[in-house]
Amino acid sequence: LFAIIDRADDLRKAKLIGKALKYLLTHKIDNMKNIFFRLCHLINDAYYDDLEILVLFRKDNEQLSTSDEERLEELYRFGFLMDVRFRADNLNESLGKLINSDGFETNGILYVLNKYGILLKDILLSK
């Protein structure tokens, strides 16, 4: 545990790791040890300010578009998000059409939380 915290390059990450341990212990998550160590690895690899945008996902299955593309791509790369690629001509009716700044339908990527993103969002929102 001390090695994981020592590896953190930001004091906020060290605090988040402590908060993650407390959360996992109080919620009695199955396979807690493996999940905790993997989550710590993901936290330490990511840029802390990017982690904070996980709370923008109000619901666990909510999708965010690429309006904050760089941060979302980083969270995807570090293992907190899944991507849902789409083309404007086959968008699900419930999503509607996405229009770019030039007024044309656009293709792109929507990001959704994976199990580690959901878990870290819950940890960030916990007291």
Give your account of this protein's structure:
This protein is mainly α and 127 residues long. The protein has a single domain, classed as Arc Repressor Mutant, subunit A, CATH 1.10.10. The protein is 48% helix and 9% strand. It contains six helices and two strands, in the order αααααββα. It has helices spanning 2-7, 11-27, 32-45, 48-51, 69-77, 115-125; strands at 81-86, 108-113. It has a two-stranded antiparallel sheet with strand order 1-2. α2 (11-27) packs antiparallel against α3. The radius of gyration is 17 Å and the shape is globular.
Per-chain topology:
Blueprint: H1 2-7, H2 11-27, H3 32-45, H4 48-51, H5 69-77, E1 81-86, E2 108-113, H6 115-125
Antiparallel strand pairs: 1-2
Helix pairs in contact: 2-3
Question: What labels describe this entry?
Answer:
Arc Repressor Mutant, subunit A, 6 helices, 9% strand, 127 residues, mainly alpha, two-stranded antiparallel ribbon
Give a summary of the structure in a few sentences.
This protein is mainly alpha-helical and 127 residues long. The protein is built from six helices and two strands, in the order αααααββα.
